[in-house]
Fold each of these.
Amino acid sequence: MQEYIAEFTDYLIQTRNYSLHTADAYGSDLADFQNFWTEFNGGAADLQSLARIDTLGFRAWLADRQRRGLSFKSTARALSSLRGFYKYLAKHYGIKNDAIGLISSPKIPKKLSKAIDASDVADMQDAIRVIDDTEPWVAARDWALVTLLFGCGLRISEALSLTNADVAGAPETLRIVGKGSKERIVPVLPAVYKAIEKYTAIRPFGNASHDELFRSVRGLPMSARMAEKVIEKLRHYLQLPDYVTPHALRHTFATALLSDGADLRSLQELLGHSSLSTTQLYTKVNTAEIMDIYRHCHPRTVKD
C-alpha cells in the first residue's frame, strides 16, 4: 500500500497543485490507516484487501483514533484523505469500495473567531519600538508585518510569500495566491505601504526585486514560525490573551469590515474563502458582540 500512497501524494502535488505540506498530511493520514488495518486485519494492506473493507472496518479505525485521543477535526481530515485515496484508486486501478461512502465524518464544533481590539493593535507599534530598540530595521519590519496582516486580512503564509516586486510602486491592490492556488485581489491602504516603505528603506539586505519582502535577521526569508514569535513577544509584553496570534489579526480585519457594513460575498472574496459558510462564522462573532453590548447597556438588564 505504501507505494500507492506515495504515488497518490505525488499526484496531489503535480496534478492537483496541492502544497507539499497538504500532500504530506494526506500521506500521514493514509499511513495511519495502513498501520491500523495491517494490525486489525492480521495481514498486509494490499489493493485487494482495500477493496473488501466493510463499514465495520472503517468504523473500527475511527473508534481506534478516538481511543488514541485524536481530535474530531483531525479524524475528519483523515477520513477525507482516505476518501480521496479511494477515488484515486478507482480512477487509476479500478479498485472500488462503496462502504467508504457510507461512513459519516465526525461532527466538528465550529469555534467563533476571536478578534483583537483595535486599540491593542495600535499599542503594538509602541511595544515593537521597545522590544526591538537595538535594531530599528527589525522594528520597522515587525510593524510592517502587523500592519499588512491587519490592513489586508492576509494569512501569514500569504504575507510571507510577497516579494519586493509585488509591492513595488505601491499598487492600489495586490494579487494574492492563497490556499489551493486560488487567486484574489486585495486592496491596500496607504498606511500599509507607509509601514512597508519605512522598513524597506532601512533593510540591510534582500533588496532584489525577486527577493521575499520579509527577511530574518540573517537575511533569509522570514518563516511562519518567526512571524509567530513576533506576535508572541508582543502578546507577552502587552499582556494580551493567548488567542492573539498572526491569524487573529486577519480575524480582526474581517470583523471590522463586517461591523462597518461589508456584505458576506465581498468579505468572502477579500479573505479568499472557498466556502461562504466559512465567512458566515464572522456573523456569529458580530452577533456575539452586539449581544454583549445589549446586555451591558440596555436599561432592562441592569439589576436593582
Amino acid sequence: MITISKIPDGKQWAEEIAQAISKGVRTNFYASAEEFFPLVEEGCISQAIFAGGRYCFVEKEKQIDLYFFLEKEALPVEVPAMDKPVVLEQVALARSGISPAEEEWEAIGFEKYLQRKRLFLSVKKTEEEQRGISFCEEEEAETILRMMEDAFEPYTSALPDLRTLRKDLAGHCVIAAREGKKLLGFLRFGREKKVSVLWQIVVSPEGRGNGIGEGLVRDWIALERATSVKFQLWVREDNPPAMKLYEKLGFLPDGRIAPVMLKKNHER
C-alpha cells in the first residue's frame, strides 16, 4: 500500500513533474505545474511516490482528482481508501485508446463512470447569420450556478466558481435565452486563442423541446465566427439528444475521447 504525503516544496515538486514528463512517462497531467502552486500552498495537493511512478491527489469540494505519472511498463498501484470519491480522467485518441487501459484501473478498484468525445466545427463550414443575441446579467450569477449544479454531474463538469462566473458575465461570455424576463437557458463559452470553446449549455425543464438549445448554439456561432477559426466542445457519449443537435449543426468528432473512472470506496 502506498503512503500519501503533503508536498513540502511547490517549486521542487514542479521541477520533478517537469523532469518526469520530459522522460516520457504516461500521464494524464497536461497543465503547467506552476498553475497548481496556490493549491500546494493551501495544502490541497498531496502525492505518493512508488517504484515505477508517482500519484498526485488534488482535493476538491466533492472529490479528489488523481493525476498519474507512470513509467512505460509500470502498472497502476492501489490507491488507499479516502473520505471522498477519487476521480480519474484521461484524454486520448480514440483509435489508440488510453494507457493504462481501463482494465488495469479496474483491477485496483476503479469503475467506469462516463466517457466524453470532443467535437469541432470549422468556421469555414458556417454561414453568417443575423441573430438577436442577449446575454445573462451579473445579478443572475447565483441562479445560473444553481441551474448548472442541477443539470450536470458533480465530479467532472468543471463548473465555474461564483467569482469566475461573474467575470464571464461581465465579459459577455454567457448567452441567454428568455421568455419575457424568465431565464429559460444559457450557454457559457470561452476562448483559447482562436478556438471558441463551449463550456456549459443548460436549458431549464420548462424550456425543453422548444429549440432553445439549438438557438443558443446558433447564437454562439454567430457571435464568435468573425474572430475564431473553429468551435469546440466536449459531449457525453450517453447523451444522444445533445449528439444529435451538434451533428445537425455540422459538428464532427476530432478523434479525442475522455474516459472518466471513479473509485467509490471511501471507507477508512
